[in-house]
Amino acid sequence: MSTVESRKVQVGAGGSYLLVLPKEWARKMGLKKGDRLDIAIEDDGSLRVAPPLMKKPVFREAELKLDFLSNPRWLDRCIKAAYMQGYDVIAITSKDRIPPEVKKAVKASTLDLVGMEVADIQPGKMVLRILVDPLKFPLAELKERTFALLLSMVNDLTLFLERKEESCLQDVMDREEEVVKLYRLMVRQSVLAIRDKEVAKAIGVVRLEDNVTNVMIARDSLRLALLSARLANTMMSFKDTFPPSNIIELLTQMSKEVLSMIERAFRSASQNDQTLAHSVIDSMERVRAIDSEVMKNLLGLKEDVETALALNMIVRDFRRMAGCAVAIADSVITGSTPPRAE
Question: Rounded to whole angstroms, how far apart are CA atoms 225 and 228?
């Protein structure tokens, strides 16, 4: 727990300002006469004093005990959570010998995470190490890569409705995994930026609160990927019997409107553009109108029940995607609202 002490400023003969350091802290840090300290001036005007030893990299290690994580799915989630929390080493321990199926599941989990490898395997312990250098992954580049993948996914959904090419849907589902990997890496980078100002500066995070905005945008980007993949899977049911042309035309309109909203939301996030962000939110009325029109047409649909249910799910998921675009735009507006000028 941090403590606050009050110290009196003294002025030396040469006009230098002198401040006595807390004795207990100096001893704990192992300071000696003649040692140098690093002094950083923070944005709020405060000073941060750090001894040279604090420059040494600190490896954070998490321990996951199999006694409490017997379900492989629980273990998988906790491995990914530890990765996103910024841990460098994850030790998986057990009082007994780790079963082969658990080792296999752990190895599968590492494939879902950028830069993770199995560093050591013992009868009752597995050690995972994250080799990602945070300084080599600027958040802006990660976001742009994610945005490009998502736009191509939504564009392929539109192309399928226009051309009925099943390969478009397969491409959408294939890209989902890559977006999920980027999402986890973006969250990890944001956590590290909160913890270390040097990392924040290196990856392009200017303000501490920007990390909150980045995580919110990453979360909604993940939802877009999951919804796109689910839409592609639902549309696969149309490969034998395509719905009536009037409904497909409305779905195509909705898809194009959602694509436009997502594209503008991403540009507003990249350029910190509030005007674009507001235009995205205002476009939701158009999506609601198309949604209402599609539902009216579905009431008179003479197709089988399964087709009607699939169409209803598609409309709902497109509307949810529009909601994700609105959420991203709202995050941009929240994160870019300027403070009052002094």
Answer: 5
